[in-house]
Amino acid sequence: MKMAETEEVFEGKRRAGIQSVEIGFGVLKALVSLRGAAPLSAIVAKCGLSPSQTHRYLASMIAAGMVRQEASGAYDLDSGSLQLGLAALARMDIFRDADDAIARFVSETGRTVLLAALGPAGPTIIRWHAGFPPLVTSLTVGSVLPLLRSATGRVFLAHMPEKQLADLIVNEVASSAGLTAVSVPELRAKALEDGYAIVDGTLLPGLRAFAFPILDIQGHPALVATMLSSEAFNRAADDADIDALKAVCASIGT
Q1: Which residues pair with 67 in a beta bridge?
Q2: If you ran DSSP here, which 8-state letter would residue 38 be given?
Q3: Res. 230: pLDDT tops 90
Q4: What does residue 76 show for φ and ψ, rounded to 5 degrees?
Q5: Model confidence over 120-167: pLDDT tens digits?
Q6: DSSP-derived 3-state class of residue 20
């Protein structure tokens, strides 16, 4: 084989390899956009590949720890995807600054604080700073919080463009008793006026949550810091710690 022909074959294989990576990420993005565990047919409809092609890519991503298959046969993101996202976030200056500042706040107050970012499925916990005594809850890193019923979600609701959140709002209103589209502007206005959001037993019984935005230079919440409290903490002490956390969040990135 001539040198030019060899180079042409190599270049063709190189392009094919790159295309395979691109297609694989397309399948992964399709799964992300479905905002939860999804059957193969739903992923196929989103990514536009044949069922057999989609299945092969998913099998490879399962082997890599990026996707898992549940007992029902549905596919969902696995820990590898979360680790990749967290690694990317850790390279952001505002995330490092927030992580350090919140760690100091937790050490000084004993309060438990979570950091959340807005992911495709909604507000997602990306860091958990456990206080003392520790809170026992089903929430953990990777948990997705409701947009309208959590303090964290209401802060994102207040500061993000409505169009960006439209699908999340529609889905949550449709699936939540007692919520209507009329409630959304009221929740947004309240969080904007107060500068933070509070829920008391709305998401989990006995759990109080106080959420504050950590804004980027465009005034959008890059992150939200949420202080969690239970009956182990005196309610009379909440106000002082709320003011302290508000000051911490306002100082980040400035």
Answers
A1: 77
A2: B
A3: no
A4: -150, 165
A5: 788 999 999 999 888 888 888 988 899 998 999 999 999 988 888 888
A6: helix
Taking only the tens place, the pLDDT of each residue in 12-54 is: 544 545 678 889 888 988 888 886 788 999 999 999 999 999 9
Confidence of residue 180 (pLDDT cuts 50, 70, 90): low
Domains of the chain plus CATH, in order, are: 3-78 (1.10.10.10), 92-251 (3.30.450.40)
The residue count for the chain: 254
Distance CA 216, CA 191 (A): 18
Q: At what angle do helices 51-63 and 40-47 cross, to 10 degrees?
A: 110
Burial level of 61, CB count in 10 A (0-12/13-18/19+)? buried
CA distances from 90 to 5, 59, 105, 129, 145 (A): 45, 28, 19, 15, 21
CA dihedral sign, ordered 42, 48, 51, 52: negative
DSSP three-state, residue 51: helix
Tokens of 178: 């007692």
Predicted model pTM: 0.67
User: Considering only CA atoms, which of 47, 45, 77, 46 is closest in space to residue 61?
Assistant: 77
CA quadruple 73, 68, 168, 148: dihedral sign: positive
The residue with tokens 């502007």 is: 185
Neighbours of 217 (CB within 10 A): 9
